[in-house]
Amino acid sequence: MLVPVILSGGSGTRLWPLSRKLLPKQFLPLVSERTMIQETVLRLAGLPDCGAPLLIAGSEQRFLAAEQMRGIGARPARILLEPVGRNTAPAIAAAALVALAEDPSSLLLVLPSDHEIRDVPAFHAAVGLARTAAAAGRLVTFGMLPTSPETGFGYIEAGEPLAGLPGARGIERFVEKPDAATAQRFLDSGSFLWNSGMFLFGAAKFLEELGTHRPAILEAARRAVEGATRDLDFLRLGEAAFAASPAESVDTAVMERTAAGAVVPCELGWSDVGSFEALWALGAKDPQGNVASGDVLLSGSYGCYVRADGRMVAVLGAEDLVIVDTGDALLVATRERAQEVKDVVARLEREKRSEHVSHPRVYRPWGYYESVDAGSRYQVKRLMVKPGEALSLQRHRQRAEHWVVVAGRARVTRDAEVLTVEENQSVFIPLGAKHRLENAGPEDLFLIEVQSGSYFGEDDIERFEDRYNRS
Q1: Whose C-alpha in 70, 168, 427, 468 is 20 to 30 A from the C-alpha of 253?
Q2: CB neighbours of 44 closer than 8 A, spacing ≥ 6?
């Protein structure tokens, strides 16, 4: 059985302010109406003997991952939760151990969740070739035929064709991201491929090679799986054991060391969607070469990528710019320097700002909230609660709340009272009162929350009951 392993960690800092720590790029609809992780799972349809996907996600994105799978009717075999990020080798090792317990002969198709593949039939054909090589004991990676001297990708130098394994070649070496002159030499040689970060190998063979070359990672993953705990539909890997693992990529830990490596060269219309330059290249362009999304007005502008998530953005007489407006943050950069956005994120983190952490709209398992206004003694939020969902039974020590229902019907617990609050009605939650908000109707519940007090942080929440097992 082919077991897809979907890697959904990572923060996508080169796509800020679209991508944030709490809502990274793989959970955003960047190149279609569906999110990147949804597209990754949907393109598996039609692969022969392909099982349900095994997702690997961070704890902060667990409900996002589950909700987006429900949104496309997908039922993951497991959602493994990484307590901390330790790069791809420990994560894949944990997935291999889980898959091996179910089926000793399982083959893992390892896919990042934030890639675009335009030619799905070619992808399926490449998986078929890689599957044959993996069944013969090879650890296979997918190499993309380069179309330009790209400096943002790693490269693989392909070796000779492997006898009896159609479409597969040996691997001479892996090369880190080159400078422009080296990338041009690689392109001209015809023997180098872009390293896609996609793999196909037997779970048992991968663990054998990992144990040979990086036994510390294998041991940490084994202890993390043995110490895993169930949490609703999630499997939480043991925190201390997983955190003790060396943080290494699967390339560094295994693929660059093993003698069993192979590469399948392919053309898939592939992009890692790692920058705004990539989004511009993928987007539908007007006659002036502009890519626009949202309420955008362009005049006399050429080669720009403009995205307006909310208010209207007008661009006059600009060339080769990236302009992204998310309401709480505005990015203006030349396309040539758009890769440097990650340096802006690093500066925001050093200065302990919050714009790199979350959008104004923050998703929760019950719905979402978004900031509307704030002052020294007040904060205003807009809440949406999905039908049948409820916030935790909680109280605050440092703020009171006033809720105004603008659409739907709310059931409110306030200490010993249970109240029904209809549209255009309101309820006051005094400081220190135990309270819960539930959607008591068939439609989405919308309300305005006005908080007043001395402190409004999310850590001023004392939970007594929570259906989502949050502490």
Answers
A1: 168
A2: 4, 50, 53
Q: What is the 3-state secondary structure (H, E, C) of the chain?
A: CEEEEEECCCCCHHHCCCCCCCCCHHHCCCCCCCCHHHHHHHCCCCCCCECCCEEEEEHHHHHHHHHHHHHCCCCCCEEEEECCCCCHHHHHHHHHHHHHHHCCCCEEEEEECCCEECCHHHHHHHHHHHHHHHHCCCEEEEEECCCCCCCCCCEEEEEEECCCCCCCEEEEEEECCCCHHHHHHHHHHCCEEEEEEEEEEEHHHHHHHHHHHCHHHHHHHHHHHHCCEEECCEEECCHHHHHCCCCCCHHHHHHCCCCCEEEEEECCCEECCCCHHHHHHHCCCCCCCCEEEEEEEEECCECCEEEEEEEEEEEECCECEEEEECCCCEEEEEHHHHHHHHHHHHHHHHCCCCCCCCCCEEEECCEEEEEEEECCCEEEEEEEECCCCECCEEECCCEEEEEEEEECCEEEEECCEEEEECCCCEEEECCCCCEEEEECCCCCEEEEEEEEECCCCCCCCEEEECCCCCC
Q: Report how far residue 367's alpha carbon sits from residue 382's, in angstroms, rounded to the nearest whole number.
A: 11
* Nearest to 29, CA basis, from 105, 153, 116: 116
What distance in Å separates the CA atoms of residue 15 and residue 329, rounded to the nearest whole number?
Answer: 12
Distance of CA 61 to the CA centre of its chain: 8
Cα 129 to Cα 14, 133, 212, 309: the distances in Å are 33, 7, 26, 41
Task: Express each pLDDT in 229-267 by its tens digit.
Answer: 998 889 999 999 999 999 999 999 999 999 999 999 999
Helix (H) or strand (E) holding 326: none
What amino acid is encoded at 233 in this protein? D
- Reported as a single tens digit per residue, the pLDDT across 161-191 is 999 999 999 999 999 999 999 999 999 998 9
Task: Give the span between the Cα atoms of 315 and 145, in whole angstroms.
Answer: 36
Domains of the chain: 2-271 (3.90.550.10), 284-350 (no CATH), 361-465 (2.60.120.10)
